[in-house]
Amino acid sequence: MRDHVHDKAQSEGGDTARVTGPPPPADTTRRWALFTVSLGVFCIQLDSFGLNLALPRIGRDLHASGTGLPWVISAYLLSTGTLMLGAGRLGDLFGRRRLLVIGLALFGGASLACALAPTLPVLVGARVAQGAGASLIMPVGLSLLTNAYPDALRGRATGLALGIGGTAMACGPFVGGALTEALSWRALFWLNVPLAALGALCAARTAESYDTTAPRTVDWSGLLTATAALAALSVLIDRGRTWPWPLTLSGAATALALLALFVHRERTARHPLVDPGLVRNAPYVALTLTGAAANTATVLFLFVVPLSLQGQWGLSVGGAGLAFLAPALAMALAGPLAGRVPAWAAVRLTLCCLAAGALVLACLSWAAAFPMYLAVAVLGGAVFGVANSLTLIATQAVIRPERAGEASGVTKTVITVAAGLGVGLVGALADPDGGPASPAATGAALRITALGCLTACLALAAWTRGSGEPSRRPQ
User: Fold this and answer.
1) Does residue 110 carry a pLDDT above 90?
2) Treating both helix axes as pointing N-terminal to C-terminal, what angle do 370-397 and 317-338 enclose, rounded to 10 degrees?
3) Predicted model pTM
4) Is 365 or 419 the better-scoring residue by pLDDT?
5) CATH of range 25-204; options 1.20.1250.20, 2.70.70.10, 2.40.10.220, 3.40.30.10
């Protein structure tokens, strides 16, 4: 199947870049796209989870206090989640390949600034820029794959890219800790520089694609309003629990007011940033909300299991890392497996994964023997890996390819904000003295999250009942 968006743009005199010679074979450009997106997703996930164990060393090296150190993590996550919504649509309008190259270049340059940062404020500022690059790479990269591959191969390609990223997500804390202990925390950022440069060079060899069904007009008012609303909401989720309640309420009111203003703007705009019809796509909404619940549970899973291996089961840091390789491998393999799921079964399977995830979390809180605990953790890695990968793969299968960046940006924004809720819960579990959370605290958090997963599963199953599941892409 031909890359119909690319070909259509050429046949209609669209915006696709002119070529002076014969175009490269489709298989070649697809492979370059797959390699580039896989590399970009790997870097993003590694930097999302690779600095957790390095924060004390960063504080000592930069002579920074403990209160400012969490911003090394938060600044990156907040920047990524805040800017992703608009990034996907900008890729649709101005060229997915072009925006992907810009994102990789920005990510690599910001990583270099992080590696050279002399003070904590410089490091936090560079992390904000790094998150801005990441916000371009993920949604634009997924939409690039959607338009590069035919229907029969699209899910497998996206699943493979997400599986590679899942490896970095699961193993990131231990990779970051090992690099910090052996070399320096700066080594993690130095690693990104050649990887991002290689990704940008490879991205330049992929085929360009655009949304040729809409004029190249950006809803700047909607973009600014959405960005402000998401920034307020993200900061509230990340820091609101430490504020006095009047400030927390004011922050919540500000975020809700901005979100309401954004919705009103999109309903009246001639060329909206987010098509209001997207929320009427029941399978898309169900998949996105299910993925949000699963992503929240995944963040807690990735935090609690390594700590429990060290605390409850008495393993060393190295031993815990070795034991966690099994759940990490299960999570990584889940991406390619999720890519083989047909579109008509996607909603049903994600709901099953959410229910299975609830059971896994409950069993982890009650496991009385280490072999049983590790076996359940491996099952959890597979279940959450499938749920998260399938969310991103299947949402691309139930929308029109020309607006793939828009849909990917909305989905990634929702599940990233949900991950912020998981990070907030993780912060509530942390020991004020810096030690690991108690088994009682982690067990309670696992059971509460399991109940939340089950409740979300039942609510979404009831909502989607009778709405049908797609057997083909809407036109």
Assistant:
1) yes
2) 30
3) 0.71
4) 365
5) 1.20.1250.20
